[in-house]
Each structure stands twice: as C-alpha cells, then as structure tokens.
TrEMBL record, chains A, B:
Protein name: Transcriptional repressor
GO BP annotations, alphabetical order: negative regulation of DNA-templated transcription; regulation of secondary metabolite biosynthetic process
Family according to the record: Belongs to the Fur family.
Binding of Zn(2+), residues: C108, C111, C148, C151
Cofactor(s) listed: Zn(2+)
One Pfam entry name: FUR
GO MF, one example: transcription cis-regulatory region binding
Provenance organism: Leptolyngbya foveolarum
Keywords: DNA-binding, Metal-binding, Repressor, Transcription, Transcription regulation, Zinc
Length: 157, 157
DNA sequence: ATGGGTGCAAACTGTTTGCAATCTG
DNA sequence: CAGATTGCAAACAGTTTGCACCCAT
C-alpha cells in the first residue's frame, strides 16, 4: 500500500466496523504525501494538519484535535496502515507502513542521530517467525542502538 | 557479560569517568540475578530493590530513589550493560544486554502479549550494518508487531 | 436513529530536573 | 577535596479519558 484512495480507506475501515471520517482521511492523506523515509510525531502531525487547513480555507475552524490525532494513530497502527517507531527518547514517530518492510533504523544513543537502512532479508525472517507463533504480522522493525562516529570521536560519554 | 563482579563494574565505570556506587551495584546485581528473558520497567525495578533492602536489613533507610533508578538505567544502557526494550505502550523495559544478542520480541498490538524468540542471523546483519555506518553497536533488536492467534480468533478489533 | 467519532479540558503516567547534602576517587 | 552522585519534590511532556455534541451508516 503506497497509495490508498479515500474510498479504499473507507472500505478498509467499514469492513472492521469503523467509520470513515474527514479527520482519518486527512491523516492518512498526509502520510501518503510524505517523502519516503519521513516520519512524524503525533504533535508534528497535528501541527502540520492544522497548518495545511489554514492555508486551504482561511477558516480557523478546520481544526483536528490532538486527541483525535492520537486516537487515529493508534487505530491505523492496529490496522496495519501505519507503523510506530520508537527512536530516541520520548517522542514516538509514525510513518506509512509500506508493503516491503525493508526499512530499519540505526540510532545513536548519545546524540540521537537516526540513520535508515534497508535489508530485505529481515522481512522474511519476521514473516517466518510470526507464522510459527500464529501471529499475523503488521510490522517488522530492526533497530540498532549504538554510538555514532562523531560521538565516539568526541569521546563524549 | 553474564556475570560481572562489583569490582569489574567499578572498573568499567571508572574507565569512563563514572563512579561506582552502592546503588549502581544493586541495580546491576538485580538484573544479573534475573532469570534469562525476564525484563523490568523502571518502577518495577525500583519496587523490587526496595523490597529486597527491607528484607535484608529491616532498615527503612536503604531506599534508592526513583530518580536514581532512571539515571542509572540510562547510564547503563549508554554503556551497553543493559538494553532498553520498547514493547507495549508506555512502560519501557530493561534487561541485561547479553553478548549474544539473538533474543528478540513479538508483540500483539491488541492485547500486548509478548513472546520472545531467537534468531542468530540478526546479530550478524546488525553488526555488519553498523560497521558500514561507522557505528559502534550496543544493541540490536528485531521487534515484530502483529495480532496474536487468540485476538484474531476473538475477532476483537 | 444508533452508536461510533470528535473536541475540549482536565487528569494521568512515566520521566526529568534543580538544588542541597553526600559520597567516591 | 573536587566533582560526581543522590534524594527529594516540584515540574514536565506526551498521552489518555469523560462527557456532551455531531455525523456516518
């Protein structure tokens, strides 16, 4: 899933007893318009949505609330539309859960710099493992934690 | 590292300009006494430490504060003694960072059940990737998110 | 028309921080 | 001794929740 029409989203939601709403469409739409590899926190998402709305309609009324943002993120993660990333401290980040999940992260524990890398073999391992356990996989993440070159050099820590 | 004496811990800390304290020894000691695969949140760790102290000395004074627990956990993660797990919502969990990092997690997004599994090939992939990026790896985690058998059956969500 | 979804504001939870006192090297 | 570390309590940030209203089905 790299592109999903509003109608397709609606079907996906309705099939599970959920409803399609303007807010949910906007959230997914924004994620779909994001460049590959870009991820947002709940608050960044919220801020962006509001900014967009202001641009389009000059109305101050088109707000989506932060609570709804959180509720929507959870919903979409549980349906497999989004993936939740736990990178550096605190802020969780979200991104589209693309079909080929060969997109993982390398995080510096000292400065929080985050690098992305791909490794197609991981998805297979994940799929196989989950199958053995009877799980239906929605996401598969390999995260490496360490100290980056410049932090090692700076001998900080 | 499956066992580390107080002296070894002290050296490890001193080498980096940190100091060895009773609190740090207790924290690491507790993790070393934990059965393989067991992990604790900061608050569980804190509660356990206090309970242990009470048992041993009947003194109510042997408390380690929650702040210190947090500070110690961060320190030990950054040194590579512990690994931080982000499993279900909120609570982060910690466990000893054993040399063979072939110990990963499978989490149900619905009921939060967590399964562990090993897959030795992952560590190699991680090591190789980190090396390319010039990182010094401290931890390597593959986490699979999905829906477990019983949740799928219950058709909840 | 039903019951799922939303917004708001208030409540929470886990985590962090300033500071004075205390210990380690 | 100097400087790292601690405990305490207060502050925070991000996230969740109750409730009344609204809207998709």
């Amino acid at each position: 899933m790299t592109f999903l029409s509003d109608q397709a989203l609606k079907d996906k939601l309705n099939n599970r007893g959920y409803r399609s709403t303007a807010q949910r469409q906007k959230v997914l739409g924004l994620f779909m318009s994001l460049p590959q590899g870009e991820h947002l926190s709940a608050e960044e998402l919220h801020a962006t949505l509001i900014k967009n709305d202001l641009g389009e309609t000059a109305s101050v009324e088109n707000h989506i609330s932060l609570s709804t943002v959180y509720r929507t993120l959870h919903l979409m993660v549980s349906i497999g539309l989004l993936r939740e990333l736990e990178l550096a401290e605190g802020h969780k980040h979200y991104e589209l859960n693309r079909p080929l999940r060969d997109h993982h992260h390398l995080v510096c524990l000292n400065c929080n710099q985050t690098l992305e890398f791909s490794e197609s073999s991981i998805a297979d391992i994940g799929e196989k493992t989950a199958q053995n356990a009877g799980y239906q996989v929605l996401d598969c993440q390999l995260t490496l934690y360490g100290i980056c070159t410049s932090c090692t050099a700076k001998n900080s820590i």
